[in-house]
Amino acid sequence: MSLIRPAFQTSKYIQPWASLLLMSRMKSIDTKEAPILDVKTALAEPKELEERSKLMGHITVPVKVDISPITGVPEEHVKTRRVRIYIPPKNAMQSGTDNVNQWQIDFDSRERWENPLMGWCSTGDPLSNMYVNFNTPEEAITFCERNGWHWFIDGEEKQKKERVKNYGVNFSWNKRTRVSTK
């Protein structure tokens, strides 16, 4: 114990590791068992422990993040784009509600032309067929701002009204549930 304490008191970054070791030592004194120490922590030098504690911290970036120069998209597609953020409608062919609560981004349409040889529809826009899903509109807004796109939210999230239906309603005697046999 006398060797561990001076080594941990040399640096302010090692305090969390030191308290962990000291607590395990105190528990072993109370229970009269051998202390449980992490081998990497016990054998590491103070410089290594200081580096580990620095790597475990969070990095905060104070400036606005703009990744548009490194995405590889031509500048005319970055500067003049408008992005629509919306909740896509439920597919009419399906009865489930699996992907209904996700937000999606959609780009404005650019010039298209028909290929004279094959008759295919062509475009010079690399972003025209891209759809990206997000859990919240805030995530979509952050994504658009990082890429340098102008955005707008189309429609708001609609709260679904919960219908309370119990099993006993099937057997109730009222005009709504009675079925005529004629």
Question: If you had to describe this structure to a student in words, what would you say it looks like?
Answer:
This protein is α+β, with helices and mostly antiparallel strands and about 180 residues long. Helix content is about 30%, strand content about 15%. Strands 5-2-1-6 form a four-stranded mixed beta sheet, with helices on one face. Strands 3-4 form a two-stranded antiparallel sheet. The chain is flat and about 85 Å long. The termini are far apart. About 5% of the residues are buried. This is NADH dehydrogenase [ubiquinone] iron-sulfur protein 4, mitochondrial. Pfam families: NDUS4. InterPro entries: NADH_UbQ_FeS_4_mit-like, NDUFS4-like_sf.
